[in-house]
Amino acid sequence: MAFLGPGLGPQTLEETLKLGNSDLRFTFERNEVPEEVQAQFFTHGVTNVNKFSAFFRDEADLVQVLRDDFHVDAAASLGDRAKVAAVICSWKEVSTKAKRQAEVEAEMNTREWTKPIPTGDYVQLRNAYQQAMGHLEDKVTPAKEYLEKKLQELENGEFRAETLSEVVSKDEVDPDVLVPIFDAKGSLSVKKGSSTVALPTGPEQLRRRLSVMQNCIMMLALKHVNREEIQDVDKDVFDRYKDYLLGDYVWGLSSTDLQGQQIQTPPWSLVLSYEQAIRKRAYVIMIKERLQLGAALEQAWKCPTVKERHFITPLALYSKRSYGASAPSAPSPGLWNAKGKGKSKSPKGSSKGKGSSRKGSVSAWAKKLGSRMGITVQVEMIDIKVRPNWDLTKSKSRQVLLNKIRSGRYFAVLISPPCSTFTRATWANQKGPRPVRSYVQPRGLQRLTWSERQKAKWGNELTDFSFEVCVEVSTTDTMLLFENPEDLGAVQQGNLYGQRPASMWQWPTFFELLEKQGWETVAFYQADFGTEYLKPTRLLLKGFQTQQQTAFVQGRPSFDEQGFYEGPLTKREAVKQLIGHAGKTREFHDGAGLASPGRWDLERRTWNTDGFWKKLREGSLRLVLESCGGWQKFDLECFQMAAKGEQGCNLVRDQALQSKLVDLWITLLREEGYETEGLGDIADGQPFRLKLMQALSKRAGDPDHCFLLQGQEGFPVGVLHQLPRTPHMYEEQTAWKLEEDPYMREEIWRDNYESVQDHEEFVREHFKAECEEGLMEKMSLEEAKRRFGDKIAISSLSVLVEEAHGNKRRIIHDATHGTKINNRIKCRDKQRSPGAREKMYLPAYYKDKGNVIFSLVGDISKAHRRFLHHPSERGLLACRVLSTDDHVYINNVGTFGVASASYWWGRIAGSGLRLVHELIGPEMPVEMLIFADDLEALGPDRQGRRGVVLAFLYLAVLGFPFKWAKQRGGLKVEWIGLFADYTSMKLGHSPSRAAWVAKWTKGLAESGNATAKEMEQGLGRLCFAANALLWERPFLGPLFSWTAAIRNKRGTLKLPAMLRTILFFLGRRVEEGGDLQTPPPLKRRTTPDVVFFTDAKATDTGAWIGGFLESSEGELRNCELGLEWIPREHNQLADDLTNEDFSKFPGERRVQWVGGNTKWYVLDGLMDKAKEFFTELQKAKLENKDKRKRVEAYAQETNLSDEDFGEVQSKQFFTSLMQKNSHRYEMLVLAVEASYLIMYIAFFILTGLEKPRKGGAPPSKDFYESCVDSLWQNGLMRLENRAAEVDLRGRWPASAMKT
């Protein structure tokens, strides 16, 4: 059967059906409309839902059209009647759905939400898939929300390689995930959130995730049959993809030693990362080369570039880090991430997850103790993070291990199964994950999600296996230690009071083992072994002697009748809580990385003290003293550097002294066997002695020294070559604000901003100077293309004039907009810089020690432009002055405005600071804080002042280019906007910033008006230094909230009275000396340091404040007032007082308080100002009300109609507007003029009339009316009809018509 296509000639039924939209075809198929009838609709152009819903006027018209044009008569036969009924059902369905869907989609597009798929459609789509492909299990059926995401990507044409945690099956959806959303007006609404699952931890889980993804795409292919790009996706493609990932080419890849034993396998995290990179590449290929997804996916996993960049190179780096140049011995089997030599420093209290390859592991400590005792210890460590092949959730792995234990292979077995599903942390509050088991249901609660059930199942398997190991050990001579947290019984506080969590020590096997001979159990606090937290722990032991260990307490856990813990451990208070901790904590960061000695207090630092470092420190100090003339003159150097600037820096700038120090250090390194040539050479194009820094850092055991030699050739920008990941030095960065754009792969040129033209001469002179210095290179466009090919990007430039710094001009290289270089740079290391928290800690620390601090502040010249970039990526850092220039400028070095510039400078600077700490040594310890290019060095007492001078000297020797003219220091110092007075140990704003804060806050408070931009800019300047103002910081919350709510508002806005009161308070506080504050004291007591508890409650009818003193002395002595928040369960008694519940306190201990006799330090001023603002508001309301009455009285006297009354109001509005703000009035007039100009142009465009010739007759009345007619017919007029417009023209003044 053939059909006549529109303009295409005869077509087959199959070809004709392809003309229809997938949604319409799906509806027809669901209502069983015959394909011949469908084909007739499609042949006549009815190809989508909207056309079909509008094709018929009503049901009668539908029946008539089917009878007359389609020859389907309902009265002819029952078969035709069924066909008509099918079409009617389809038409009613799409008509209703089209209207409703249009409304929903409009709302979704407005809110930028994912459009939902109706549940019925989801079920029908799943059924259609099962009819075509067979039965589909729920665990591999894509969840509705995941299908909705991929459908939106398909409709938008922008595919995204999601992480596997987003690939959710029907079994894994959490129906309770709701997310609050605030719109621009501040209205709150709620939408369904997205469910996520844990990343796959093994091959089978990866197969299931990819199966869910495969089924999702195949379902979309059934729904959108006209989208050719996904039609080739089938099970065969994904099966081959899975086999590739999990076969010998990726996951199964391994290396063996000479004996054929496996020594290395790829880390599982690398396999997952490579898998996502393949999908990213597949989507790029699909878009650029217009291939179908299946073919693009296969091409991506076969692409050697993708494998080299995302698998081979990272794998080689792992391997290189495992072996090391000086470690020929092979690592333990499967231990890919074993660390080499070097120091491993972790702040006290920090922790790492079980199984991480580190020096603190059981294996490492056992070997270390064995070496001290002269015993060779062999440890077989079973941990999936260290040895991914040993997955103990698999019965085969468990059986192999049990066979080894039965055979008596091991002298001792140490068991520490994961306790994440048994932890009490989930019972502390309702803010985190839910508990998955309890005392009543120890193997798993009912009504868990799929992921929670899976966690409980894994926990059960590992717990059962652990006790199975214990049973097997009981028949051998093997020693055993089983460790897990103590069972502390029922919850004693919070909302879950009285409920009892589960514990491994509740397993029946535990009690059965204790009945056997040789088994015992003890409990202890880990705090007794040096931790800041208690962490009560229980051990199950066989064959161990515990009598000599006083920290161990014998006995099983005991409980009262209600299940509350009674012993054997006695209750203690911890210095640091792991659960329910009050407030947030942040570790100290000095800007030099995690391994920096400066992150530790002086008494907790460690230095190298061998002969090499002793000779180096003593020899260096001897050369310094010879150069300056002895200790007396050396002690004056710090004061000269602080007071005289560049003139006081003669010692640290002495080139002869620097050369002598370099020679000494090289000589000592040569004696140690360092034969590298040119150790003292300065790197080409850079000021640093990179080889010398690397050699000394390596000798010091610095874990991040290898990268320095890479700087000889140049560091990668991060586009063509991925930036490295250095977990030993920085935390991992997992999120980036800029998303990668798959289209930005070839050359892009972008014009500069207008500010460059205004400062053209300055830019050219600046570039000329930088070319002479070697920082830039000038070349023609042809040469640039020949050298870099398509890997060139000319970014926009902008000139920033800093008025606050004497109109200093700074050139900004915009690598984000247009060229999107920054979008492709992923800094995977999270570099942290010091701020107000660190500055508050140091004065408190040295005040507690009784030291006097002296500070020197230095500025490093062009810090971000002091290192080379790799030659292959320099073309991406191109720029030019004008678009008409025939030449470009190539940046050879780091560029301000490129994301990786701060990263590489941060690593170089951090390496220098860590090395200087080691060079100075323990005799003259210092504190060094670096924020971008600003360095502050602090030293306590005389030895510290000497160390500060040596710090700047040694940094200068290593090549750090200081701006000596900006050198400053003393006992009162400003650094990065923070002002520190070390004479009184106070911190806050500098005098200039304090003056600005007072002016800005009081100005807003008095005027009562502000724009959104003014608020955002002002708070941006205020918030950084406000971290040092402890008492004012809580008042900033309402200011930030209101600023966020008005972000998209235009014009001048009225400040609420509350905000004006807060601004007035802040301004007054700064003027009265609140700009400098004493940091809170250090907490060193092991006993509770909170002695006074308060709480408050406020309603629309009143306010209540309650507090009580908890002190054995009965009064407050040597106390500090703090603003720390504590959990409600720890402050229940004070909360009871605010609720007027006094039953917990004796009546005779109550202190009577009379409010009228109290002098308030803050409240009185706030209340007076609030009353003043309220009076002002009431006065404005009365004035507006009085003005309205006068206008209404005038209207009654003159008998004005409603229309004329509105005109009078409008005139009064414009008059007041002009008097109030002439600038706004002028802008309004300009807008009106522009509107008339647009209408005049529209007259000629729409009527097709030519412009009257010069000297011709003016347009006639007919001409004007024809223009009005044309405008009305084309739908541009907003009046009710043409008559109203003509009437409006007739009432227009004659003078205005002429004009």
3D architecture notes:
The structure is a single chain. The protein is an alpha+beta fold and 1299 residues long. The chain has 41 helices and 34 strands. Strands 7-8-10-9-11 form a five-stranded mixed sheet, covered by helices on one side. A four-stranded antiparallel sheet has the order 24-25-21-26. It has a four-stranded antiparallel sheet with strand order 27-28-29-32. Residues 1163-1197 form a coiled coil. InterPro entries: Hepadnavirus_pol/RT. Residues 347-363 have a biased composition (Low complexity).
Approximately how much beta-strand content do the residues carry? Answer: 5-15%
Coarse shape: globular
Kindly name the structural category. alpha+beta
CA-atom Rg in angstroms: 38 Å
Distance between the termini: 71 Å
Q: What profile does the largest beta sheet have?
A: 5 strands, mixed
Mean pLDDT: 77
Strand order of the largest sheet: 7-8-10-9-11
Low-pLDDT residue spans: 1-9, 175-191, 321-359, 580-584, 742-746, 1217-1225, 1245-1257, 1271-1280, 1291-1299
Q: Treating each run of at least 4 consecutive H or I residues as one helix, how many helices?
A: 41
Share of residues in helices: 40-55%
Number of strand segments = 34
Keywords: Coiled coil, Membrane, Transmembrane, Transmembrane helix
Protein name: C3H1-type domain-containing protein
InterPro entries: Hepadnavirus_pol/RT
For the structure shown, list the relevant keywords.
single chain; alpha+beta; 4-stranded antiparallel beta sheet; 41 helices; 11% strand; disordered C terminus; C3H1-type domain-containing protein
